[in-house]
Amino acid sequence: MRFAEEFVSRRAVVIVRLSLALVWIWTGVICLAVAPIAESEQLVARIGIQGAAARWIVWLTSAFEIVLGVAVASGRWPVVIAWTQIVLIVGFTAIITAFMPEWWLHPFGPISKNMVLVAAAWAASGGAGESSTQKPEIAERP
Questions:
Q1: Structural domain of residue 54, as residue ranges?
Q2: Could you report the per-residue pLDDT of 57-111, keeping only the tens digit for each?
Q3: How many structural domains is the chain composed of?
Q4: What sign does the CA torsion over 31, 33, 39, 42 have?
Q5: DSSP string of 82-112, one letter each residue
Q6: Does residue 28 lie in a domain region?
Q7: According to a count of CB atoms within 10 Å of the terminal CB, is the N or C end of the chain lower?
């Protein structure tokens, strides 16, 4: 039974990790190649960055998201990658909350879903892995 639980747990972590990777890569690609750059620049302008600087922010952020997605998919450095995701998500959420609070009331909930992404990043790092679910061993008395 323990083997089956570990097998399912490992599979779940891989599925969560690859799902997160897809979200990061997809978001970066959409921002760079599909969405009109002017729309992205308008969003960045709402935090006070305009013109060429806004364009650079869009490009750099999108490229970073693609690189982060590839890093997440690789499964290497899970704790560092998880904290990178968490800091980025919390940072984006704080900026949006400060400058575009109406996004919290959007019918599709694009900001409220960040809470799930933070939890998924933590879980994919092994935060919810064996060490936290393993029962402590009780020493036998001599």
A1: 9-126
A2: 999 999 999 999 999 999 999 999 999 999 999 999 999 999 999 999 999 999 9
A3: 1
A4: positive
A5: HHHHHHHHHHHHHHHHHH-GGGGG-TT-TTT
A6: yes
A7: C
Tell me which residue has tokens 């499964």: 75
Tell whether 133 is covered by a domain.
Answer: no
- Token pair 């935090």 is at which residue? 47
Question: Which CA distances in Å does 94 have to 90, 103, 126?
Answer: 6, 12, 26
pLDDT tens profile 12-68: 899 999 999 999 999 999 999 999 999 999 999 999 999 999 999 999 999 999 999
CA distances to 19, 29, 106 from 24, rounded to whole Å, are 9, 9, 21
> Of 37, 61, 32, whose CA–CA distance to 51 is shortest?
37
**Tokens 């064996």, located at residue:** 130
User: Residue written as tokens 């393993």?
Assistant: 134
Classify each residue of 85-113 as buried b or exposed e, where b means 16 or more C-beta atoms within 10 Å of its C-beta.
bbebbeeebeebeeeeeebeeeeeeebee
